[in-house]
Amino acid sequence: MAALTETARPLDADLLRRHDVAGPRYTSYPTADRFVEAYQPPQHLQALAQRGAAQPLSVYVHVPFCEQLCYYCACNKVITKHHERAQPYLDQLEVEMDLVAGALGGHAPVSQLHLGGGSPTFLSDAELGSLMAALRRRFRLLSGAELSIELDPRTVDAARLAHLKSLGFNRLSFGVQDFDAAVQKAVHRVQPFESVAALMLAARGLGFTSLSVDLIYGLPAQTTQSFARTIAQVAGLRPDRIAMYAYAHLPQRFKPQRRIVAELLPPAGDKLAMLSGAISALLGEGYAYIGMDHFALPDDPLAIAKRQGLLHRNFQGYSTQPDCDLIGLGVSAISRVGATYAQNAKTLEEYEDALHQRQLPVQRGLALTRDDLLRRAVIMALMCQGRVEFESIAASYLVDVPAYFAPELERLAQLAGQGLVVLEPAAIQVTPLGWYFVRAIAMVFDRYLQADVSRERFSKII
Fold this sequence. Notes:
There is one protein chain. By secondary structure, the chain is an alpha/beta fold. The chain has 2 domains: 123 residues, Orthogonal Bundle (Arc Repressor Mutant, subunit A); 294 residues, Alpha-Beta Horseshoe (pyruvate-formate lyase- activating enzyme), CATH 3.80.30. A 9-stranded mixed beta sheet has the order 9-10-8-7-6-5-4-1-13, with helices on both faces. Strands 14-15-16 form a 3-stranded antiparallel beta sheet. Strands 17-19-18 form a 3-stranded antiparallel beta sheet. Helix 4 crosses helix 12. It is globular.
């Protein structure tokens, strides 16, 4: 990362506008919209069996339930105040765990576990305890493993935080989005700053290893001034990590967003100003920019991994964990096993129906081609290390990199002219400025995207 004096300046408005186009987030390549329904449970079972249980896994568990609808939300969720709906879902989760563990052929070690949703804290303390016990019966959670959970601050108190600590969780992710009262009302998610601050203070006292905060810019009723205040408040809380996402208003795809008053959405220019101002403010507060919407304090393992060129990326975003297979459990969850992706059914009914028949709930997926694997390696090198060494790619995939990617390198020359990359004789290097546009750089190597005229299913990349 360049020195603070070089990076704390506001980003060039023209560059931001030029690259504010639709595109993927690249938590995978190929992206999930390329999955096919021809990929079914037998293929996933085969991939699990071939992998076996020797190497450490990352495990993601999706808990879809929320008590209240947040209007901006595009997650797979079930809105209900009927907490009795959780237990049947947990029962089916155990069936899925049995099927996966059986296919792996052993008590597979796990180095990273993440509970997301929805709102995992919709579950009661007893239900969370039983879920963790069920996971420990089927998998071996390694000493020092990262155990994280997403929190809806409205559903927890200090006692619940203590219970989460007793279950082994060491990382907490607070869903904040914005602290401005008018914005919170506009998106139907009211949670005062004071309550979140008290929870974070309690979490620090309990000894959680890492606290992170999620923010969204571009929400209704947001202004550059109001979002600047939120950034200042968050920085004052000193979370170890901050994820700051652009709001994508796609009401034709996500029904809850139809409740948002479109006239309240900030204009594109203001949205870009929010991003630029927030980056400058967070860098000024001592945070390091990791890439792709993520910031971390300099002594956080994520920032250290960035400096050492050891970042990795999976469906949960950036990670310090060595590149490993991911097992997704629960409705809509996605797994990555070797050269395959598999996604579970997206509705509770279809998910539970498959498991009642003791079948994996996989509904679609993808077996990657040689070209997919090659391009995945290049894209992940760009997203994580900011550098592609032609020699290492050539040795792994037996290709002449400059010849294979001649059209892509030609397009990259335009980005080099904008100061985003440096094209070396045997490497591609992302510049300090280029890190803020790394999605645009990665998109150059996306064969599917380059052939796709319509990108309406994607959000803007800035």
